[in-house]
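pasting for ref. prot 1 ->
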Amino acid sequence: MFAKILHGQFELRQMFWKYGVWGVSLITFIMYLFRIFLVHRLNGLRLGEYYSKVFSFINMDNTMLFLTISYFTLLAFLTFYSIILVLGVWRSSAEYDKSVWLRHIARILILVVVFFAYKIVL
């Protein structure tokens, strides 16, 4: 399925809404839940401060280890999926011949969706 998304083999509407907006929103929502749990356990520290100054595998409890591994795994998956998605929407919109405007709007909006997904989870 990732190969079909990468090569833009679905129609633009399906690529943009189903795999783009809804797919990225689902991954972002799950990551945001893990981020809330992490921030709750950090007692006022920001995530960046914690991982740059306090973080240590040696003194970590199991819950924090699970949340950290899950969060970074989902972040890696979101990055992988976003790259595949942007390339797929770009290729699918290149074959869209109904409207030049919709072609370019889809390209711009998928970049906006990915940008806001990262803004929410980081």
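and prot 2 ->
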Amino acid sequence: MLKKYLLVFLISMIPLIELRGAVPVGLSQLWGEPLEILPLYIICIIGNMLPVPFIFFFARKVLVWGSDKKFIGKFFKFCLEKGEKGGKKLQEKAGRGLYWALFLFVGIPLPGTGAWTGTLAASLLDMDFKKSVIAVIVGVVLAGVIMGLASVGIFGAFGAIFANT
């Protein structure tokens, strides 16, 4: 059981997968019994949020530094451009509701949106650290709830109910 908790913790830290992939793994019977929901969420949230301060304060510096390097340059440039593009798009659409937009960007589990990308965008936009972290953590909680409901089939059940009416 401890191995499965460690596994979901580590999965939660992986960019692009994050908590959105860890919650379904924790709720599955893939490696034994499903984990209890509350400890699963707590571990996934901690795992997903652990890299956030490092991303906020150091990611831009590292990406800029590595963007002209021979072997890593293309990937670093891609990450930098994706973060800048996401940040500008977020800023254009949100205006003064930028932190609400960051919360929704992180909270709605779509490909390429999550704590890593949201934090990188906040860093590139020079947003306030404390407000950004609050928006990201609440977004991560929302994404966890959505993924948990999806994993146990709630959305499929609603679809089946309303499709027959």
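The two ends are 42 Å apart (CA to CA).
DSSP finds nine helices and no strands in the chain.
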